[in-house]
Automatic annotation (TrEMBL), chain B:
Parts of the chain that traverse the membrane: 12-34, 46-66, 72-96, 108-129, 135-160, 181-200, 229-257, 269-289
InterPro entries: ABC_BtuC-like, ABC_transptr_permease_BtuC
Entry similarity comment: Belongs to the binding-protein-dependent transport system permease family. FecCD subfamily.
GO molecular function, one term: transmembrane transporter activity
Topology class, membrane: Multi-pass membrane protein
Principal location listed in the UniProt entry: membrane
Species this chain originates from: Vagococcus elongatus
Protein name per the record: Iron ABC transporter permease
Localization in the cell: Cell membrane
Lineage: Bacteria, Bacillati, Bacillota, Bacilli, Lactobacillales
Length: 251, 323
């Protein structure tokens, strides 16, 4: 996926300002940066949820706009942060929606196999007939990711999927995503607030500040004191423990 | 999975039995020995009930899915007042002669439907094309236009010739007891087209439940789809308004009963069950109006009354649940 000179204006405010990027395939890429840096907006533009004002985004050599909606939906899936659905819907039915681009609502044999696989992959098989309004935040988030998994796309874009998850579920979620990248060859792009999750699980990091691309590099190159201090305008300690880097920012 | 399917089928079968039962009762009860006459007379009415009921149900369910709100009905877009305005304008400019020629004929009906669909299409296109999240703005504009239309109508009616005004009243109170039989054929064809479209779109409508972003992610072009749906909704509402006059609450009662009865989000089940419920309500309502109340009240009054009570009840219930 290639992003060329993409900009977005809200009124007179430049939310995303001439971003040039190339997303590496088969990697877990984290988008980090201070609030209002334009991470979510960029992610939404990559997934055609909002229109860009200037620039182009190419997916497999074709501009995102020129893709047929349904074909694109087999290639790229996005999950936004707020998902409150006021519906009598079971987990299985929610996950089945992921097959919509493939079968247009008529569930085939292959579809139900994919749904079964998604359910078991995310530990939802036993509770598949529960209604989603009875689930905890963590279970609901998992159900949604399972839907994205069932959609079976090469690219998976997630906007702060760790919101409202406690540490245990957050770590589980990151492991699942890592697993998707390593064993299923997916490209995962994820907006993260907590840089420690990015430091531990991401292959590459895209840092954004004030709508501009700040740095795009391997994780080890970004999780450095001199980079992070300038990115967040604060004093961040980076230490290493058991081969992993951690950022301490409580002063 | 199979269990849910069976449960839905049982629920729909129960509705079918009730509808058939009441229909037979409505068609054959108290015919004063002249069954044939009663059948041909009531039969036409019965067909109109089916048409209005099905059209209203499909339109309202679709509209509520688009707006993601179980309280709104398409009448919020100002359809009823637009219908009244068109009728008033015709009487105002062409007077009693022309309108009596056009009265009850297909061209006027088609013109009516056409104007309503074109006007609403215009509105949707400009409001929804511009921005992504302008649906509520559209609803507000619709409400304000509705008020504007009815103000203009009232103004014109005041300065209208009293005789023509009298004729106009008769026309405006197109009601269930006074259905325009001559329009059934053309109405049937048009609503069939709309209903087939909605039926085929039902799986995509299901996806809309997940919200705009998730539906986009699943490959639905939400903006275009919304405009298409709203146009079809306009067509259906225009049809049923022209046939039976404005019925504000019918759609509201029917679809909310349907959601409760079926307890599913799948539009195909909702469409079928909703249509059955609305036919059931209309036929049984008309039966009571004719046979029990002996024409002392009209169907519209009954619907408005029952619907109003149900509406208030539902709001209070939702409020309690929110606490």
């Amino acid at each position: 996926m290639e992003i060329k000179k993409v900009s977005k204006l809200y009124g007179s405010r430049q939310v995303v300002d001439g971003v040039d990027l190339e997303i590496s395939e088969g990697k877990l890429t984290a988008l980090i940066g201070p609030n209002g840096a334009g991470k979510s907006t960029l992610l939404s533009m990559m997934s055609r949820l909002i229109d860009k004002d200037i620039g182009e985004i190419y997916l497999d050599g074709n501009e995102v706009k020129s893709w047929k909606q349904n074909e694109l939906a087999k290639k790229l899936a996005i999950l936004k942060q707020s998902n409150h659905v006021n519906l009598k819907l079971t987990i299985r039915e929610l996950v089945a929606f992921g097959r919509f681009p493939h079968s247009k609502g008529r569930v085939t044999q292959k579809d139900s196999e994919m749904i079964d696989e998604a359910l078991s992959h995310f530990g939802l098989t036993d509770i598949q007939d529960q209604l989603i309004d009875s689930l905890s935040g963590g279970q609901l988030q998992r159900a949604y990711i399972a839907m994205i998994f069932a959609q079976d796309t090469d690219y998976i874009l997630l906007d702060e999927p760790l919101n409202n998850l406690d540490m245990n579920y957050a770590v589980q979620m990151m492991k699942i995503l890592k697993d998707l990248v390593v064993y299923h060859g997916k490209t995962v792009i994820i907006v993260l607030h907590d840089i420690n999750f990015a430091a531990s699980y991401a292959d590459e990091i895209i840092a954004m500040k004030d709508g501009k691309l700040f740095l795009h590099d391997d994780t080890e190159e970004v999780i450095k004191k001199e980079v992070l201090d300038r990115l967040y305008d604060m004093n961040i300690k980076v230490c290493e423990m058991e081969g992993k880097r951690f950022c301490l920012y409580f002063n | 999975m199979m269990k849910i399917l069976e449960k839905n089928m049982v629920k729909i079968s129960l509705l079918i039995i009730a509808v058939v039962g009441f229909s037979v009762l409505f068609l054959t009860y108290n015919t004063y020995g002249n069954l044939e006459f009663a059948l041909s007379f009531r039969g036409k009415k019965f067909i109109a009930f089916i048409l209005v009921g099905v059209a209203t149900t499909f339109a309202t369910i679709t509209f509520q899915t688009i707006t993601n709100n179980h309280f709104l009905t398409p009448s919020i877009l100002g359809f009823d007042s637009l219908y009244i305005l068109i009728q008033t304008l015709l009487f105002f400019f062409f007077g009693i002669q022309v309108s009596s020629v056009l009265h009850h004929t297909i061209p006027l009906f088609l013109l009516n439907v056409f104007l309503m669909v074109v006007l609403s299409g215009f509105l949707y296109f400009f409001l929804l094309k511009k921005g992504n999240r302008e649906l509520y703005l559209l609803l507000m504009v619709g409400m304000i236009l509705g008020t504007l239309f009815s103000s203009i109508s009232t103004f014109l009616q005041v300065i209208l010739d009293p005789n023509e005004y009298d004729k106009l009243q008769g026309k405006l109170f197109a009601s269930f007891s006074n259905i325009d039989i001559s329009l059934i054929g053309i109405g049937f064809i048009l609503s069939c087209l709309a209903i087939i479209y909605l039926w085929l779109s039902a799986p995509t409508l299901d996806v809309l439940h997940l919200g705009r972003d998730q539906a986009t992610s699943l490959g639905v072009n939400v903006r275009n789809f919304q405009i298409k749906l709203l146009l079809v909704v306009s067509l259906l509402v225009a049809l049923s308004t022209a046939l039976a006059g404005p019925v504000t609450f019918l759609g509201f009662i029917v679809v909310n009963l349907t959601y409760q009865w079926m307890g599913t989000y799948k539009h195909r089940y909702l469409f079928v069950a909703g249509s059955l419920i609305s036919v059931l309500l209309l036929v049984s309502g008309q039966f009571f109006v004719e046979q029990v109340f002996k024409w002392n009240t009209t169907m519209s009054v009954v619907i408005e009354f029952v619907g109003g009570v149900y509406f208030v009840g539902k709001i209070l219930h939702e409020r309690k649940r929110a606490h």
